[in-house]
Amino acid sequence: MTTPDDVPAFRLAYVPGVTPNKWARIWAERRREVALQLVALDVQSCAEAVRDGRVEMAITRLPDALRHGDVGAHHTIELYDETTVAVVPKDHVLTAAEEITLADLDDEQFLWPLDEPVTVAQRPGRAVDHRPETTGDAIELVATGIALVLVPQSLARLHHRKDLTYRPVIDAPVGTVGLLWRSPTTDLVDEFIGIVRGRKSTSSRGRSEPTAKRSAKEKAAAKRAAREAAGKVPGKGARRATGRPRRR
Q1: For 71-86, how does the pLDDT look when each residue is reduced to its tens digit (9 = 90+)?
Q2: Among 235, 53, 148, 72, which residue's Cα sits nearest to residue 156?
Q3: CATH class for the region spanning 84-173
Q4: Where along the chain is composition biased (Basic residues) (predicted)?
Q5: DSSP label at 148?
Q6: Domain 9-81+176-196: which topology?
Q7: Cα(171)–Cα(100) distance, rounded to whole angstroms?
């Protein structure tokens, strides 16, 4: 997405499997004067992009993004956890169960891509010597039947193939998607945090202050002023017509 040079922009990075469309739509409704520029990055590049100022904020996988770069003084907010799944061929024996455990994977061979979207301290099964460059490459190799791969469920859906499926691994570490930005926090960053957290546009922490409620006396005065302006009642201080002649 490109933005004309004369239009201010808020640059937001996002990683594969993350869908910021809903938040982008709300931003467009609230901040029409600042374009939201979406920048697709891999997890390894997010920290560096934030540090160098190429983007103001990133929606990425934590803490994986921080393992690939030091952003110095930074802030993070965890948004949600992702279920870890094993991607397997459709005819694999593991598809007999709706859910599996790490122990069920002890006899399997695994691919561990270099971008490693899931950090597993005690890796199950046996690792294949070859390490694919990306998760997408690893999933392509799963289709050949040489090994399985563990990924966040969103990536399994992103790289869906008709000959593959996946099963949740209920005791595997979960991945966390969150926001990453550098210090200091700006008004635009705070605005996006509010959108992601569901803060209303009239929130006291948002751009617009809530309208103060009027007292009954103030409401009555406003109503009278409106009627006077319409000529329905005499203004304050006007003589009341009685139909009688004035006394001399």
Answers
A1: 566 899 999 999 999 9
A2: 148
A3: alpha beta
A4: 237-248
A5: B
A6: D-Maltodextrin-Binding Protein; domain 2 (3.40.190)
A7: 8
